[in-house]
Specification:
4 strands; two-stranded antiparallel ribbon; 2 domains; single chain; mainly alpha; 64% helix; Ribonucleotide Reductase Protein R1, domain 1; Fumarase C, Chain A, domain 2
Amino acid sequence: MSDELFSRVLAAGPVRALVNDEAWLQAMLDVEGALASSQAEVGLLDTEEADRIAEACSASYYDVAEIAEQSRGVGNPAAPLVRALTERVGGAAGRHVHRGATSQDVVDSAAMLIADRALGALLSELDECAGSVAALAEDHLDTVQVGRTLEQHATPVTFGFTAAGWLSGLDASARRLTEVRDRLAVQLGGATGTLASLGQDGTKVLAAIARRLGLSEPTLPWHTERSRVAELAGALGETCGVVRKIAGDIVLLGQTEIAELSEEGPPGSGGSSTMPHKRNPVAAIAAIASARQAPGLVTTLLDAMAHEHQRAAGAWHAEWRPFNELLRSTGSAVSWLRTSVRRLRVNPDRMRENLEHTGGLLLAERVTTELAPILGRLEAHDAVSACCQRVASGEGELGDLLAADPVVGGQLSRARIGELLDPAGYLGSATTFTERALAAYRRAKGVS
C-alpha cells in the first residue's frame, strides 16, 4: 500500500528519499561490502573474494518486496538479504558473505548509516533555515513589536528580538544533532557481542569497518546498550520542538486579528476548498503537523531501550519503524519550516498599529518603574493599575488618565508621561540580545 496521498505533506523534503526502503537495502549492503573488505584488510579473506562480494552489494540487484516478504519468516530483513547476496556472489567468495556478523549487526549499522545520511540533509536544511531567520533578525533589529505573554499584550520587543529567539533554537538544534552524529557508531559483535567467530582479529575488523563506513568505532558492541538510539531520538525530538515553536509563532502572528506576518507562496498555495479569501500559512502548518509526530515516536524509542541480556526479544524490533519515521518526520518539519521562513513577509505598519491598540497599556510597567523611587513600588503599582482599569472600562486613553490622576499626575508631567508611553523607548536590551544571537550564529558558521 502506498502512502503517497499524505506523504507529500507529512514526509516532505530530501530526508524522505534517504530513509526509504531502497535506501535501507543499500545501507545494509554497504555494511556487508565493508565487512568483507575489512576482513580482507586484516588477512581473513582474499582481496579478490572481498571485491566479488562488494561488486554484488548494489540494491539494484535485489527486489525490495521479495526481501520484505521473506523477512516474515525470520523476523528481520537482513537474513533474507544475506541469503540473496550469497546466492548472487556464489562460488568460494559466497561462503564468506556475512562472516562473523549477525542480523542485528547489519541492521544496526545500516541504521547508523541511514541516520548519518539523513542528518547530513537535515543539517543542511537547518542551516538554510537559520540563514533566513538571521536575515529577518538583522533586517528588523529596530522594528518594534508587541511582546506577548500568556497570549496577551505584554511589554514591547522588536521583531528582530523575536527572530533572534528562533535563531537561537535553530542553532542549539544544529549543535545537538552534530554532536549526536559524531557518536553514530558501527555495530559488529556477532552472536552475543564477543566476535568469537573472528578469533583474535575481531577488534581489528571492527576498527576497519568503522573506518570504511565513516562511523565511530564503539568501545564494545552495543546490541543491548541503546543510548545512541536514545540520544538520536532526543535530538530529533528537540529539533521538532524548536520547529513547532517557530512555526507556531508564524501561524499566530499571521492571524487576521494580528496580521504581523504572512506567507507569500506561489500561486495556489494557501488556498481553501470553500473560502476564496483564505491565504493560509500552509508551510508553517505542515511544519507543525510533521513536528507533532515526534513526541510519540521518541517515547517509543526511549521505552524500547530496555534490551534484556545480550540480545533482546522484541525491543530491538520495536525500534525500526519509529526510528525511521522520526527521521522522516523531522526532515519534513525542518523542510517545511525552511519554506515558511523563506516565504515570510513582515508587516511593520501592522506591528505599529497593534502597539497602539491598547492605548498605551503595554507601557504601564514603565510608568510604575519611573514612579517607584518616588512613591515606593506598591503605591506606584496601585496608582497606575487603577488608571489601567479605567482604560479597560473605556474611560479614556492611558496618558490622559495618568496625567489627571492626583498621585501620578502629581509627580509626572503630561509630556513625560507621553515619553514613557512610547514603545520604542522601552526595549531594554532587545537590540543587544539580538546582536549577540547574530554574532553567535556567525561564529558558528565561521563568518566574522
